[in-house]
Design brief:
- The chain has 19 helices and 27 strands.
- With 672 residues, it is α+β, with helices and mostly antiparallel strands.
- It folds into 4 domains: 2-234, 4-Layer Sandwich (Deoxyribonuclease I, Chain A); 253-298 and 388-505, no CATH class; 303-380, no CATH class; 518-670, Nucleotidyltransferase, domain 5, CATH 3.30.420.10.
- The chain has a 7-stranded mixed sheet.
- Helix 9 (325-353) runs parallel beside helix 10 (365-378) and helix 15 (557-574) runs parallel beside helix 17 (604-614).
- It is globular, with a radius of gyration of 30 Å.
Length: 672
């Protein structure tokens, strides 16, 4: 159901533009229409609205601007509109959908052209947000961008204006509504060589909107005769995706009554080969946990409001009779019960949100709820256009050598299985006992039970437009295997992942970035002579565009790794690169920068410095094995033994040229 249509019409008085607004209203069938930059006097507004659609009611911000810049039109048969506030840059009503009786707040925005004037708008938005406790959507032309990626190359954006806009969004807890279509909504209409684009028009929502309308999305449509794209907001009904797979929850650890139930289920004698025994035991454990969770543990979402009400009731009685010792003891017990249930809820939401880097301590349930809702909203595929299929043609020239093939197919040892198990996060995999025999059984017999080989097919957006994918060619399918093999004290062991780890971790290679993206590989080294950092930036063809090899005074290797990344990012910024993929062979540096692990306090200054650099580019970071990071490794070790320098591209040393050639050819390196 489409509910809002928004458009910066750039002066509405001409017949052609009024006709286009009429077409927008009729084609979208939206009961609300938000127009910006109308520039028509008050006495002309009624005639213009009548010409557009005689059944619509309207409101303009004429109390603040002689030529109203913002209009809101609505269908009184479908919505009720109550104007709560307005200014020279927005109209803020409460909307009630008469058919469903749903209500939300709508802010129709037209930001001024100058940063100083827009600061007044940001202040007004923060004032509005301080009292809002219901779904809120802001839509229109903000005349500001949030990131450098929201503009075309060569277009100059004032950094302070962008910082002001982002600061306002953070203070108001606003996020972009999920969108389809091309989000660079404005163009200057110049010739192709001088044309510039920017995302000036957008829809922002608060976390309550996410909770009430998780499947809402915005569609960017062609601008037509204006220089701004039209935006249409739709509400989508939630559909059932079938039963969810079983998942072990960390909050169950706190209840000691779980352990006997699981031990009893695990102790059942099963006859058959090792993998069959594992599968059947896990089924029994899952069934036992399900019964225990329903009959004994209880539902946290029901228990928490009940515990809160009980605590309030006891505290109200204690306020009336503060000297009553029995009520005091009851208050202590009820408070402990509330805190216990609250901790369970926080554990559950942390697990669902997959935010591992947040420090333990204060309860962060509201934050985790917001992360879960935002993730669910972001992962929805709202619509998809057909695009020509893409085919990957195998290269017959790339083959494994006989030695590599023999190494890959040799027998898997118990030690390799043990290393594969312990390489997975302790919160995601149990120890190797009881599973080693099942894994070795697979490699010896070559058979995998269907219960283990269940696969989910998921579409992952890829490419420069990954934030707003709308075509099938912008997605890549990912096979998520397999059914989680659960064990009662830890969770989410995936046997298939072990099988893959035991084989594929023996080899690695350097992977080029996608077109339009650049890759930075960095490394650091320490020797008796001193320390050094090195890095190289390459394009999607694998060609080097910048190299550095710098001598550094001795220090912690971790700090040097972060310093190398900062140096590479600074070089990328100087080259005008805004889309950067960073790879390093330090798992500690990668985990600290992507916030999957909390860095030690003495390294926080280095991490914060790196984050400040990364704020200026669109970036992602990942780990690379040392053998595939040979180019950066060579540059960092080179600077330890000779004076560091930035290496001109036309003077690349022969050893480095050999490494780059092998990387470009897709050579597979054997891990040592």
């Amino acid at each position: 159901m489409k509910i809002i249509a928004s458009w910066n019409i750039r002066v509405i008085c001409s017949a052609s533009k009024k006709g286009e607004v009429y077409n927008l209203i009729m084609n979208s069938n939206a009961p609300l229409c938000c127009l910006q930059e109308t520039k028509a006097r008050r006495q002309m507004m009624r005639d213009n609205v009548y010409d557009i659609c005689s059944s619509r009611e309207s409101f303009g911000n004429y109390n603040h601007v002689i030529k109203g810049r913002v209009w809101t039109l609505w269908d009184p048969d479908r919505v009720q509109l109550d104007i709560l506030n307005d200014s020279s840059q927005f109209i803020h009503p409460r909307v009630t959908l008469l058919q469903t009786h749903q209500t939300f707040l709508l802010t129709n925005v037209y930001g001024r052209n100058y940063g100083g004037d827009r600061r007044i708008l940001w202040q007004d938005m923060e004032t509005l947000s301080s009292t809002i406790q219901e779904p809120w959507i802001l839509i229109g032309d903000f005349n500001a961008v949030r990131y450098h990626s929201e503009k075309s190359k060569g277009m100059i954006i004032n950094q302070s204006d962008m910082d002001d806009f982002n600061c306002c969004n953070n203070n108001c807890s606003l996020a972009d509504l999920r969108s389809i279509g091309h989000p660079l909504s404005w163009s200057n209409g110049a010739s192709l060589s001088e044309r510039k684009y920017a995302r000036l028009d957008r829809a922002l929502i608060n976390d309550i909107w996410l909770q009430d309308y998780p499947l809402a999305f915005a569609e960017y449509r062609a601008p037509g005769i204006s220089d701004h794209s039209r935006i249409v907001v739709s509400l989508k009904e939630q559909c059932s995706l079938g039963p969810k797979p079983f998942r072990f929850m960390d909050m169950w650890f706190a209840d000691s009554s779980l352990y006997p139930e699981v031990e009893r289920a695990w102790a059942i004698k099963i006859v058959g080969n090792p993998m069959y025994r594992i599968v059947q035991k896990l089924k029994e454990v899952r069934r036992a946990i399900g019964i225990w969770d329903k009959d004994i543990f209880g539902r946290v979402d029901i228990m928490l409001p009940m515990a809160r009400r009980n605590l309030q009731d006891v505290q109200n009685r204690l306020a009336i009779n503060p000297a009553n010792q029995d009520i005091r003891k009851e208050e202590i017990a009820v408070r402990e019960e509330f805190l216990n249930v609250s901790r369970k809820e926080e554990s559950m939401m942390r697990q669902k949100s997959r935010v591992d880097w947040l420090c333990e301590g204060d309860t962060n349930s509201k934050f985790f709820h917001a992360v879960v809702k935002a993730s669910y909203h972001r992962n929805q595929i709202m619509a998809m256009e057909h695009s020509p299929p893409e085919f990957i043609v195998p290269n017959p020239d790339k083959k494994l050598t006989l030695e590599e093939a023999e190494f890959l197919t040799r027998e898997v040892s118990r030690e390799e299985i043990r290393q594969a198990v312990f390489s997975i996060d302790g919160n995601k995999a149990p120890g190797p006992d009881d599973f080693t025999a099942a894994i070795q059984n697979f490699f010896s017999r070559g058979k995998l039970l269907k219960e283990v080989n269940t696969t989910f097919i998921s579409l992952i957006p890829k490419g420069p437009d990954a934030s707003t994918p709308s075509k099938s060619g912008q997605f890549r399918s990912a096979l998520l295997s397999t059914k989680p093999l659960q064990k009662f004290w830890q969770q989410d062991l995936k046997l298939y992942k072990f099988l893959l780890n035991c084989k594929t971790d023996r080899f690695c290679r350097w992977i080029p970035p996608i077109p339009g993206e650049f890759k930075l590989n960095s490394d650091a080294s320490l020797s008796d002579e001193g320390g050094g950092i090195g890095g190289i930036i390459r394009d999607s063809n694998g060609d080097a565009i910048y190299c550095f090899s710098l001598s550094i005074s001795k220090g912690e290797i971790y700090s040097l790794e972060i310093h190398a990344i900062c140096t590479g990012v600074a070089a990328a910024m100087a080259l005008g690169i805004t889309n950067l993929w960073i790879e390093a062979d330090s798992t500690f540096a990668v985990a600290s920068l992507d916030k999957s692990s909390h860095p030690p306090w003495n390294n926080l200054p280095d991490i914060k410095k790196a984050w400040s650099y990364l704020d200026s580019v669109d970036w992602r970071i990942s780990h690379i094995w040392r053998e595939a990071n040979s180019a950066a490794d060579y540059l960092s070790k080179r600077s330890c033994t000779c004076k560091g320098e930035n290496i001109p591209i036309h003077c690349i040393p022969l050893p480095l040229m050999d490494i780059l050639s092998r990387d470009q050819a897709g050579e597979i390196y054997q891990r040592l």
